[in-house]
Amino acid sequence: MPRRIAILGSTGSIGRNALRVIDALGPDYVVVALSAHTSVELLAEQAKQFEPRFVAVSSSDHARRLRALMDGQKAEILVGPESLTELAQSDDVDTVLTAVVGAAGLPSALAAARCGKRLAIANKEPLAIAGELLTRIAREHGSTLLPVDSEHSAVFQAMQSGLVAEVRKIILTASGGPFRGASPDQLEEVTLEQALAHPVWRMGPKITIDSATMMNKALEIIEARWLFDVPVDRIEVLIHPESIVHSLVEFVDGSVVAQLGRPDMCLPIQYALTYPRRVAGLSQPLKLDEIGCLRFERPEPETFRALTLAYEVARTGGTAPVVFNAANEAAVEAFLAGRIRFVQIMDLVERCLDEHNVKQRNVSLEELLDADGWARRLVERRLTLERMIDY
Ligand SMILES: NC(=O)c1ccc[n+]([C@@H]2O[C@H](COP(=O)([O-])OP(=O)(O)OC[C@H]3O[C@@H](n4cnc5c(N)ncnc54)[C@H](OP(=O)(O)O)[C@@H]3O)[C@@H](O)[C@H]2O)c1
Asked: In 3D, which of 29, 26, 15, 182 has the Cα closest to residue 84?
């Protein structure tokens, strides 16, 4: 029986790579559903090539344009934010690859877990903001969570060498982004173009800015805490500029097990789809003799404030992670729109965390969404206030 896959966010960087991987995997992997937010032209092209049963977009206007572009094709078009949840729940789907960006992917990830689907998770925000809820629902409903993030895929693979109780620490590697080695003062002058120029990875704009602030790694710390059920104080970050060692696990006997590979998302995407099997795919072999040297260094906490905040937020739990993430999403959007400077992203995130009254226990999905909305509104209020002061 072929694997029947829904790709939520098929027009993004992960989604496009996933389609290349599936194309190369052959007929045992079938695309049943695709979704985009607004990129209807690309979605229509993908639908023409992969002939899914369902395609989804976020608004009726986009659906109308998509319908015109897909003239003569049979796929059913679903509309609106809830269409992602419908796809995740569909009986025609057994594997959901969630590659949407941001907290927008939370309801569909929860729905897929509740239906006991195999859930390949690229979209890290749902685990970072609702890790307790999502992993609990997955456990209760027999859903398998498979990481797609290269670091978590590496940890997942290394974990197969021992038991969770035998793990001394998890070491997440980070490329260091474009501002590795920069001082906090140097960050004051950073432009949007510099922040978008990632030295290793080609990704969507939001995660590229998150890599520059190291908020990406901050979210990954919390994601790892939930995916692997390891206390956050046993998760470390090391900068590894070559991005060849994707992460490491140290066991109680002192053995350190790592996964290595070229910096290419096709490999972790493929492993999440074929697990527990390994098959030949698109990724090129690693030639360590050509790479020669692998460096590791500690990140500078004053330059990368997001990392310090991640540990505080993870220890606090409850609604703190959702506020941490939502404030960042709103601030990154403002930075990408040219409304704020780079360093103001973390200023806004800190401000929201300072002003938030955390609810720590028994937090429901509604309370998480309320806290998310509160943080986004607070960022917007601060931006409006600052603009008024500037005038
Ligand atoms: N890129 C990587 O190498 C990488 C590596 C590890 C983890 N991740 C994680 O994977 C996720 C996707 O990253 P990406 O780089 O692929 O992002 P991206 O290139 O920006 O793509 C995001 C995808 O989600 C869709 N989308 C955006 N906002 C949406 C919304 N509100 N509702 C529904 N769909 C929406 C986009 O549709 P449109 O095209 O129509 O806007 C697109 O298909 C992120 O959580 C990121 O942190 C990415």
From this structure: 15
**Which candidate, 291, 151, 131, places its Cα nearest to that of 223?**
131
Spacing, Cα 121 to ligand 1 middle (Å): 12
**Residue spans in the chain of domains classed CATH 3.40.50.720:** 3-147
- This prediction's pTM: 0.96
**Is there a contact between 328 and 125 (Cβ–Cβ < 8 Å)?**
no
Ligand 1 centre distance from Cα of residue 293 (Å): 32
Q: Which two tokens stand for residue 19?
A: 């389609």
pLDDT in tens, 31-79: 999 999 999 999 999 999 999 999 999 999 999 999 999 988 889 999 9
CB of 18 sitting under 6 A from ligand 1: no
CATH class of 3-147: alpha beta
| Cα(161) to centroid(ligand 1), Å | 32
Fold annotation for 317-391: Rna Polymerase Sigma Factor; Chain: A (1.10.1740)
Read off the pLDDT of residues 87-96 as tens digits, 9 standing for 90 and up. 999 999 999 9
Pocket-testing residue among 7, 8, 14, 271, ligand 1, by greatest number of atoms within 8 A of Cβ: 14
